[in-house]
TrEMBL record:
Protein name: Phosphoribosyltransferase
Alphabetical list of CDD domains matching this protein: PRTases_typeI
One of the record's GO molecular function terms: glycosyltransferase activity
Keywords: Glycosyltransferase, Transferase
Entries under InterPro entries matching the protein: PRTase-like (IPR029057), PRTase_dom (IPR000836)
The keyword Transferase is annotated on this UniProt entry: yes
Amino acid sequence: MVFVNEAWNQTGDIVVYSNYHKYWLDRERKIKNPLFDVYSGKILDLKEGKMSAVQYFYQLLDPEIRRGVTICVVPSSNSEVKESGIGKLGEMLAGNGRKNKVYFLRRNKSIDKLATGGNRSMETHMKSISTVLDMDIDNDIVLLMDDVTTTGNSLYACKEILLQNGAREVEMFALGKAI
């Protein structure tokens, strides 16, 4: 059990905090999405690594996540990116009585950005993600976090990799579900 509130624990599925609405309906013609809201804006701020957004999500999530769990995040699609907004959030959450294995997973080969039409297949993720060799997750209960999920395949691929590397249990969580 990763979450304090029983209703949040949905074994085998992705727990999503809220919906995410993209900013542009049509970027080329500069047509904004009328459904874009404050929460979606906070997610974009987090993606940019803004500390105000990291703090915002920390305040929302910290009371909801049990102490003692291992925090891990889905790596960026760009293998050059070593730190991310969701990673900063994960590190802050781990600093409060949880295990910091935020960057246990890493992208060893860049893939096209999913938000701009990249291949979303599980196979693409499985082939491009590896683990940090000097860190282990044997028998850990892991909260695997991502900022936005669409198909869930990056979360499912990362969950599979974590289980193959010894995690006892993996709960998947995303701040937003792309609508």
